Amino acid sequence: MRNFHVFPRIVLATVPTLLLMVSAACHKQVPEQAVRAQLAALQAAMDARDATAVRDLLATDFIGEQGLEKRGAHQLAAGLFLRYREVSAKIGPIQVEVLDPSNAIARFNLLATGGSGGLLPDSGQVFAVETGWQYIDGHWLLRNASWKPAL
């Protein structure tokens, strides 16, 4: 009969440990899903021609190709939206590498097109893109980005 009383203690000691392990496993998936959601928001901002929404996804210390910083990225987006009536950014398959709970890298191909609104875009190019994301003040923000022509 004594062994029967030991079993509930073992269960009570084991269940919280199992819950912590399951919670930790689920937590690892959250950053990847959040980064993917932010990339979808970035594509939506481009499709909506919303330079302010693009800027809002960037960290204060964002740095891009050739020293492009947050203000410059905002101005570049606004300029593209003024130059091209039709702007499109289609993100290809995304690979997310979670470095730790607050840092991740996302790699993908991006098809960028712009045009005057005709049937076919005036210009377009495919880029290989690598982005660095950081969890800052409750949000995943783009800290850095590099891109090069994919073809």
Explained architecture:
By secondary structure, the protein is α+β, with helices and mostly antiparallel strands. It contains three helices and six strands; from the N terminus they run H-H-E-H-E-E-E-E-E. It has helices at about 1-45, 50-55, 70-85, and strands at about 60-65, 85-90, 95-100, 105-115, 125-135, 140-150. Strands 1, 2, 3, 4, 5 and 6 form a six-stranded mixed β-sheet that branches. A hairpin with a 2-residue loop joins strand 3 (about 95-100) and strand 4 (about 105-115). The longest helix is centred in the first third of the chain and has 46 residues, at about 1-45. The chain is globular and about 45 Å long. The model is unreliable at about 1-30 (pLDDT under 50).
Q: What is the element layout, followed by pairings?
A:
Blueprint lengths: L1 H46 L3 H6 L1 E6 L6 H14 L2 E6 L3 E6 L2 E13 L7 E14 L2 E11 L2
Parallel strand pairs: 1-6
Antiparallel strand pairs: 2-4, 3-4, 4-5, 5-6
Q: pLDDT average, as an integer? A: 82
Tally of helical runs:
3
Can you tell me the residue ranges where pLDDT is under 50 for at least 5 consecutive residues?
Answer: 1-29
Separation of the first and last Cα atoms: 74 Å
Radius of gyration: 22 Å
Structural class: alpha+beta
Shape: globular
Beta-strand proportion: 35-45%
Main sheet attributes: strand count, strand direction, barrel closure: 6 strands, mixed
- What percentage of residues falls in helices of 4 or more residues? 40-55%
Count all strands and give the number.
6
Element pattern in H and E: HHEHEEEEE
